[in-house]
């Protein structure tokens, strides 16, 4: 993880930034799957959580120069070029710190959980309601990207958590979204 590329969303009067970031992130995911890349990570340097949560307008790709070059020559940005500005590949600053950027999943909809339980346990919705109270629902303040599953076609929210900043990097692999539960990316 000694190099990076920044991809910045350009202002667009027709599409909100969150929609463009979802499209960009979806294209990245598809390319990481096709390349079977486990050596590329992502971060969102302008992310915010809380009531005004957002991934921001910049997606940063992290990896070796060879891994980033392989991704960028794959043509994955086709169709997005009018909506983004792509920086040149650069070396990570020497004094960069590190953090884990991971997917976080939540039980956010009690009714959906009840339907799922009823189906799996051959119960009625009333029986499932007895087992799953409304209190299981959580209000989430993490930023997210709205993506479409390529396997099921369903739309879902991918919540993204930026972990604590660390002094030392942690090696590991990244999933097909460029996220990891343990590996860090440079943070600067």
Fold and architecture overview:
- This is Type I-F CRISPR-associated endoribonuclease Cas6/Csy4.
- InterPro entries: CRISPR-assoc_prot_Csy4, CRISPR-Cas6/Csy4_sf.
- The chain is an alpha+beta fold and 188 residues long.
- It has a domain at 3-105 and 164-187: CRISPR-associated endoribonuclease Cas6/Csy4 (Alpha-Beta Plaits), CATH 3.30.70.2540.
- Helix content is 24%, strand content 24%.
- The protein contains four helices and nine strands, in the order E-H-E-E-H-E-E-E-H-H-E-E-E.
- The chain has helices at 17-35, 65-72, 110-121, 125-131; strands spanning 3-9, 41-43, 58-63, 84-86, 90-91, 97-104, 144-148, 155-162, 184-187.
- Strands 1, 2, 3, 4 and 5 form a five-stranded antiparallel beta sheet that branches. Strands 7-8-6-9 form a four-stranded antiparallel beta sheet.
- A hairpin with a 6-residue loop joins strand 7 (144-148) and strand 8.
- Helix 3 (110-121) packs across helix 4 (125-131).
- The chain is globular, with a radius of gyration of 19 Å.
- The protein starts with a strand and ends with a strand.
- The model has no long low-confidence stretch (mean pLDDT 92).
């Amino acid at each position: 993880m000694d190099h990076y590329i920044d991809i910045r969303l350009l202002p667009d009067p027709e599409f909100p930034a969150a929609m463009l970031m979802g499209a960009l992130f979806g294209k990245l995911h598809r390319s990481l799957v096709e390349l079977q890349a486990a050596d590329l990570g992502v971060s969102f340097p302008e992310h915010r959580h809380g009531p005004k949560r957002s991934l921001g307008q910049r997606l940063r790709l992290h990896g070796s120069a060879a891994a980033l070059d392989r991704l960028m020559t794959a043509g994955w940005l086709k169709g997005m070029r009018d909506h983004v500005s792509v920086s040149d590949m650069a070396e990570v600053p020497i004094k960069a710190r590190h953090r884990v950027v991971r997917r976080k999943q939540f039980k956010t909809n009690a009714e959906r959980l009840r339907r799922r339980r009823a189906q799996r346990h051959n119960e009625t919705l009333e029986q499932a309601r007895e087992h799953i109270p409304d209190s299981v629902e959580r209000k989430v303040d993490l930023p997210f990207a709205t993506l479409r599953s390529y396997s099921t076609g369903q739309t879902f929210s991918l919540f993204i958590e930026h972990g604590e900043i660390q002094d030392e990097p942690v090696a590991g692999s990244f999933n097909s979204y460029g996220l990891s539960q343990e590996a860090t990316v440079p943070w600067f």
